[in-house]
Amino acid sequence: MRVVSWNVNGLRSVHRKGFLPWLAGSRAQVVAVQEVRARADQLPDEVRAPPRWKTHFVAADRPGYSGVGLFCRLEPDDVVTRLGAPEFDTEGRLQIARIGKLTVVNGYFPNGNGKDRDLSRIPYKLAFYRRLFERLEKPLRDGGRVLVVGDFNTAHQDIDLARPRENRETSGFRPEEREEFDRWIRAGWVDTFRHFHKAGGHYSWWSQRIGVREKNIGWRIDYVLATPAAMTYVRKAAIHPDVTGSDHCPVSVDLDPAVR
């Protein structure tokens, strides 16, 4: 059972660059996308409801901003989209989908930069992290099979970006952001990719400046975190830098089908 996450940086845009052929060949049972940037009724029919896929979308109140979506081979038993806090719920950043015994949480975690890259959104970003952490504390504690997938907008350690020294004061690698990520790991969440791959040089986001991606000057800010109970079923974790169309690339995990 493959679960894939991809910040598509505009679903309509990535559709024009081959999203549906990629989806058909992904061999995934669940594909979670972030930064959809459209309401469901603004998406082309073939994207909103591709054959043999069940879909679910959550849009931000602000047009053309944020938004998350799910493409599932099986209809989820339930999808929750709210944290119960208007400041988060209006931005369309969350889907909590229950598929049998497996829960897939699709999150588009906020960026800490304000309009002028002034770090003004870091408190909001950290508050989102903490609110979701609290929402998932009970299933973590009770041995639930939970995956949290998405764009976390944080590189956890020096190994997770090409130029850590130059970016210590940049949102996405500031100490308070990394500490919040640390808190999840200390609580028992497993970074699935790092569990299997200890070496550096693996990134999921690159600046769109010319030549940056080709030189692999990137950041690993897209993750699949697993509870210990879910991790028991994880057989493989991967990053797919060969998949283009967005400034991010997909990340994935393969699980024993018995997880659900």
State the secondary-structure class. alpha+beta
Give the CATH architecture: 4-Layer Sandwich
How many discrete structural domains? 1
Please state the oligomeric state of the protein chains shown: single chain
Number of alpha- plus pi-helical segments? 8
Q: Order of helices and strands, N to C?
A: EHHEHEEEHEEHEHEHEEEHEE
CATH superfamily: Endonuclease/exonuclease/phosphatase
Distance between the termini: 9 Å
What's the rounded overall pLDDT mean?
Answer: 97
Main beta sheet: 6 strands, mixed
Number of DSSP strand runs: 14
The CATH topology assignment is: Deoxyribonuclease I, Chain A
Strand content range: 25-35%
The strands making up the biggest β-sheet line up spatially as: 3-4-2-1-14-13
Describe the protein.
The chain has a single domain (2-259), classed as 4-Layer Sandwich (Deoxyribonuclease I, Chain A). Helix content is 23%, strand content 25%. It has eight helices and 14 strands. The strands form three sheets. Strands 3-4-2-1-14-13 form a six-stranded mixed sheet. Strands 5-6-7-8-12-9 form a six-stranded mixed sheet. Strand 7, helix 5 (122-141) and strand 8 (145-151) form a beta-alpha-beta unit. Helix 5 packs parallel to helix 6. The N and C termini lie close together (9 Å). The relative contact order is 0.16.
